[in-house]
Amino acid sequence: MRRAAAALMVLIGSVALAGCSAPHSVPESAPSSPPAFVAESTPDGFERWDLVGLWRVSDAEGTDGDTWLYLGADEARVWSDCGFQFGGWSAGGGKVIVDIYMWHMGCSTKDGQPAIPWLSDTVGYESAAEGWTLLSATGEVTARLRIDGVPPPHPDTNDDARQQPVLDDDLRTLLRDVSPPDDMRTAAADELAGRWIPEAPAPRDPHVAISADGTWTASDGCNGTRGRWAVAPDESLLTTTGPTTLIGCEGSGEPGSFGQARAAAFDGDVLVLFDGTGAVTGRLVRADD
User: Fold this and answer.
1) For residue 4, is pLDDT > 60?
2) Fold of domain 6-175
């Protein structure tokens, strides 16, 4: 993710930790998740990387004709007349989550983070003749996406940041579907909610707290982070990861293990997380077990 002119970015609910004195400090106002969504016609024949692109946005609340949505790797970026905002995204099986948590100073409002109503209402997607249609939890159109031009130059970022992302094998690997081994049972959404700790004991209380409202927080014992999550109709795990600090710590990598996961399954009572390559990123047990 390009963080050009970082001084001009505003960080929502910053994870400001002084040493390890507050190891579980995370943003207090993670966005709530919309209700579960199932597309009327799941986009069969499409892969999640088909959403990768720099898309002009139309038929979206609060926008004009000069709004673009960039989806590349695990980064989402919204370009509009105020500048740019960015965060993370994940999609699969007709369901999508987008989590915007940083923005250019020119987009700030008196309340801080600028609202993007059409994007915050989006939970699903369907293919369209020219690109994609984004949908709300009730199936209403929140926006239409098509490839059409690029945003105008901006003095606080480079030209590469407003071009079409390159879809290569590395990006396809990052976004590909992952199936757990046959001897494990795929985790359902209602089984993931709760507080999880490493299977192997670790110092400083590293953990992941997964909420039923579609948000999650985590700590490695010194650094906190948060994000959004969902389970798609195809049973893939969708996650986004927000900002974090980089304090050296003797804990465990729980924030990364869940934020990078593309599949979750149970090996007995152990929750096993897999990234886009199929590698295990974490083995967790319930904190209250």
Assistant:
1) no
2) Lipocalin (2.40.128)
Rounded Cα distance between 263 and 282, Å, is 11
What DSSP letter does each residue of 40-92 carry, written as one string?
SS--TT--GGGG-EEEEEES-TT--S--EEEEETTEEEEEETTEEEEEEEEEE
Q: How far apart, in whole angstroms, are the C-alpha atoms of residue 138 and residue 135?
A: 8
User: Which CATH number does the domain 185-286 belong to among 3.40.50.740, 2.40.50.100, 2.40.128.270, 3.40.50.150?
Assistant: 2.40.128.270
- Using one digit for the tens of pLDDT, what is the confidence trace for 103-162? 888 888 887 778 899 999 999 999 999 999 999 999 999 999 999 999 999 888 888 888
Burial of 82 (0-12, 13-18, 19+ CB in 10 A): middle
Q: How far apart are CA 59 and CA 116, in angstroms?
A: 13
The residue written with tokens 């590698």 in the block is 279
Where along the chain do its domains lie?
Answer: 6-175, 185-286
DSSP state of 106: G
| Residue type at 5 in one-letter notation | A
Number of H helices, E strands in the chain: 4, 18
Are domains 6-175 and 185-286 of this chain identical in fold?
yes
Tokens representing 148 are 């059409």
For the stretch 161-187, pLDDT in tens is 889 998 888 888 778 778 899 999 999
